[in-house]
Design a protein that fits this description.
The complex is a heterodimer.
Chain A: H1 2-28, H2 35-43, H3 56-67, H4 79-90, E1 100-104, H5 125-131, H6 147-151, E2 157-160, E3 165-168, H7 178-182, E4 188-192, E5 199-202, H8 210-216, H9 226-230, E6 236-239, E7 242-245, H10 255-259, E8 265-268, H11 277-286, H12 292-307
Antiparallel strand pairs in A: 1-4, 2-3, 5-8, 6-7
Chain B: E1 24-25, E2 31-35, E3 45-46, E4 53-54, E5 59-62, E6 71-72, E7 77-86, E8 92-100, H1 123-132, H2 145-149, E9 159-163, H3 173-180, H4 182-196, E10 201-206, H5 210-220, E11 226-231, H6 240-248, E12 263-267, H7 268-279, E13 286-292, E14 300-305, H8 310-316, E15 324-329, E16 336-337, E17 351-356, H9 357-360, H10 373-377, H11 384-392, H12 396-401, H13 412-416, H14 423-444
Parallel strand pairs in B: 1-14, 9-10, 9-12, 10-11, 13-17
Antiparallel strand pairs in B: 2-8, 3-5, 4-7, 5-6, 7-8, 13-14, 15-16, 15-17
The chains are: A alpha+beta, B alpha/beta.
Chain lengths: 310, 445
């Protein structure tokens, strides 16, 4: 009996002293953390993708709270709804940001870009690009190794086995930019999604001179500059034999799509038009490529300026 | 007991098909493409323009920086254009393209075969002349020779090692050069000793070339300070650090240059080029290249002009066999597969290996079984299996700590791997990324 009593008392005393030390330590060494950081972190998607430019979601929450304004801060995964929530927690103004999406700027499918060699080494774009220009004559285009697919944590980019090119699933893409970093060729670019997901972009990154680029790929940009001349908004620049459409200036009039002799400028998600046969014939006679595809592309593009002249 | 290096190494099959084939002069092609970047360092700056007439041996591009090399025309004719051509790296690189007309040499070049023993130049004059003649290391890395001979003031050279090892299977260009030009090489060694201000030189030769060892030993007896060192066969003995270890028992520390242990290493091919540059006033515009392969009709050692399309050299050896699977520039261990045969020859082209389909096949890749054969084989004492894994997972900071920058890309790890794992591919990736990381860090400072 006595033994039990001693044990209870002594252990109780130790417990009391320890509790006292812990209590004092917690007061003395307390670190103040803004409770809003936890709140903000809670509404973030916890994807920890780094698309915002901060190390993970907690890093982003910390930065949002400490900065005192949401300027230049945007959660690519959560988008506008999440940013609105963050703004309401912090009592700040939310900045209207246009939704963006990853765009693969290479259209060098197996059909457009014939193979000139075969790589039986490791299927990794990073390694292949170290070794040589790739299996085709184009040393700028997609290598088809799928490094971008491996980098995506949202299952939003996949290789199309028919074309051999990666395709972005717009609904799943959060434009975190992981694929942009993974691509050793800088083919993927994060561009504004555009109204109704309608976009116009140069689907080529080849900087070779025209004849070389043309020989390597049927749909390469040859740097002819026709698009630059036709663009009424000055959105297109030509540098190193390569045209680039600035998405912030482009009004999607699609005049450039019409004039591109290589069909290197791609228009996405625009409604199809009724072909005007007479015009098609006239244009067709000047074209060297007489595939049904080319005719169709011309036919589609003939109407386009009218619709967008509003 | 013959000497060799202490860590790692493998024994690939020799396959010296073109051994003892005397050096044949290759025909001058109708057009050459001379790359502006055939060496390590800054690309050379062109001195000629479209339409200019050039002669054989004329300087057509000057040094583009401290670590750079001059480039000379290998033919006479008219400059067609300066344009990008695909080189052995598989990427377009700027080159001077010349249409050949006749074969008119610069008058200053001594074209006779007479041996000129006496070197009348001082050390500084020799180094200046080597710079002018565009001499680079001809073992494959193409490091400008004049830079090697001018070590930082903190270091002092004690000896020169001449690399006649030729440890790559198939290649025989250096072997044949030693057999045919032993005297010239000896004079070349003496010139290098004078330039480096040392009085000791070793010529290292693997014991699979007993005739070359015997001949050079006999020749060396009349040249003071030159000693021929036979070495036990083991790949990669031709690696600079491995060779220094084998010959002098000195180990070059991680990240240090060979000069830190007082050694300057030069290839026999370079030594011969040095002789020609100093004694015959002949810049580096041609070299011996081994064209070989089991299916090739006539494996040969050709003396070809820089800029010759490789296709022409293959044609001279019986043409490309029908069962060709891969064409490799260099040897099978460190060489690089080519995209096509229109690639021009450069100062570093030591060989061209044509593999048939059977040989060219890569083995099926299996999982790593942790047998550590690659660790045993690594001649730099690294852990290749670990490095490959780290590279695959993008852990480049860790790779730097694991001394990836020491990797000499000899390929022993991949050669020895029973699971055929692409270890070297990943090591190269890691080396590239870590190198970029280090450069970025230096630029920040």
């Amino acid at each position: 009996m006595n033994l039990i009593l001693i044990a209870v008392i002594s252990l109780g005393a130790i417990a009391l002293i320890s509790a006292l030390i812990l209590f004092l330590a917690s007061k003395k060494f307390a670190v103040f953390e803004d409770p809003r950081i936890t709140e903000v972190a809670k509404v973030l998607p916890q994807a920890n993708c780094g698309g915002c430019g901060y190390p993970g979601c907690s890093g982003f929450a910390n930065a949002c709270v400490k900065a005192g304004s949401l300027q230049g801060k945007y959660c690519t995964v959560g988008g506008q709804p999440v940013m609105t929530k963050v703004a309401s927690i912090l009592g700040l103004e939310v900045e209207e940001a246009e939704p963006t999406v990853a765009v693969v700027r290479c259209n060098g499918t197996c059909e457009h870009r014939p193979l000139v060699s075969r790589n039986d080494g490791t299927r990794s774009c990073a390694i292949t690009s170290l070794l040589y220009g790739g299996e085709t004559g184009c040393s700028y285009g997609c290598l088809g190794g799928g490094d971008c697919v491996n980098a995506c944590q949202f299952d939003a980019i996949h290789m199309n086995p028919v074309t051999g090119l990666p395709e972005v699933d717009e609904d799943k893409c959060t434009s975190c930019g992981a694929c942009v970093k993974a691509c050793p060729r800088n083919i993927i670019e994060v561009r504004p999604k555009g109204k109704k997901s309608r976009r116009v972009y140069v689907s080529c990154v080849n900087k070779d001179r025209g004849p070389i680029a043309k020989k390597a790929c049927e749909v390469s940009c040859i740097g002819c500059g026709k698009c630059v001349k036709v663009c009424p908004f000055g959105a297109i620049t030509l540098e190193n034999n390569l045209a680039y459409i600035d998405p912030n200036v482009c009004k999607s009039c699609r005049k450039c799509v019409d004039v591109c002799p290589q069909h290197a400028i791609v228009e996405l998600n625009f409604p199809p038009h009724k072909p005007k046969i007479a015009v098609v014939e006239e244009v067709d006679s000047t074209k060297t490529i007489e595939t049904p595809k080319a005719v169709e592309a011309v036919a589609v593009s003939v109407d386009s300026p009218k619709e967008n002249n509003n | 007991m013959l000497k060799t290096f202490s860590i790692g190494g493998v024994h690939p099959q020799e396959n010296k098909l073109s051994a003892h084939q005397s050096i044949i002069k290759a025909a001058i092609p109708p057009q050459v493409a001379i790359l502006l970047s055939q060496h390590i360092g800054a690309p050379a700056k062109p001195l000629v323009a479209k339409g200019d007439t050039v002669k054989v041996g004329m300087k057509i591009a000057e040094l583009g920086g401290f670590v750079s090399a001059a480039i000379h025309s290998s033919v006479s004719g008219k400059v067609l254009k300066i344009d990008n051509v695909i080189d052995a790296s598989g990427y377009p690189k700027p080159a001077i393209i010349i249409n050949v007309e006749g074969d008119e040499w610069e008058e200053t070049i001594d074209r006779s075969d007479t041996l000129v023993k006496e070197c009348k130049f001082s050390s500084e004059e020799i180094i200046k002349k080597l710079t002018d003649c565009g001499i680079v290391g001809m073992g494959g890395a193409c490091f400008p020779t004049q830079v090697k001979l001018c070590p930082p003031p903190a270091f002092k050279a004690q000896c020169v090692i001449i690399n006649g090892v030729e440890c790559e299977p198939y290649l025989t260009a250096d072997h044949q050069l030693m057999l045919e030009h032993a005297e010239e090489i000896m004079v070349g060694v003496s010139i290098l000793m004078k330039a480096a201000k040392v009085n000791k030189a070793f010529i290292a030769i693997e014991n699979n070339k007993p005739d070359a060892i015997e001949l050079l030993k006999k020749t060396a007896s009349s040249y003071p300070g030159i000693e021929v060192v036979p070495l036990k066969m083991k790949y990669p003995q031709g690696g600079e650090k491995q060779l220094i270890d084998a010959v002098t028992d000195r180990q070059v520390a991680s990240g240090a240059l060979p000069i830190s242990v007082g050694v300057i290493v030069q290839n026999v091919g370079t030594t011969f080029a040095v002789y020609q540059a100093i004694q015959k006033n002949k810049p580096l515009f041609e070299r011996v290249i081994t064209i070989t392969g089991n299916s090739l009709a006539k494996p040969s050692n050709l003396l070809a002009r820089i800029g010759t399309p490789l296709r022409q050299l293959v044609d001279a050896c019986g043409g490309l066999p029908d069962d060709t699977g891969k064409v490799i520039s260099g040897g099978p261990m460190m060489g690089k597969a080519l995209i096509n045969l229109d690639v021009p020859m450069t100062k570093g082209s030591s060989g061209l290996l044509i593999m048939n389909e059977e040989e060219a096949k890569r083995g099926e890749i299996h999982p790593c079984i942790r047998c550590a054969k690659c660790v045993d084989a690594c001649s730099m004492g690294l852990e290749p299996y670990l490095l490959a894994q780290l590279a695959a997972h993008g852990e480049f900071e860790r790779m730097e700590k694991e001394r990836i920058m020491d990797c000499i890309e000899c390929g022993c790890c991949q050669f020895t791997c029973p699971s055929n794992r692409p270890i070297l591919d990943y090591c190269r990736l890691g080396k590239n990324k870590v190198g970029a990381m280090i450069r970025a860090r230096k630029a920040k400072k």
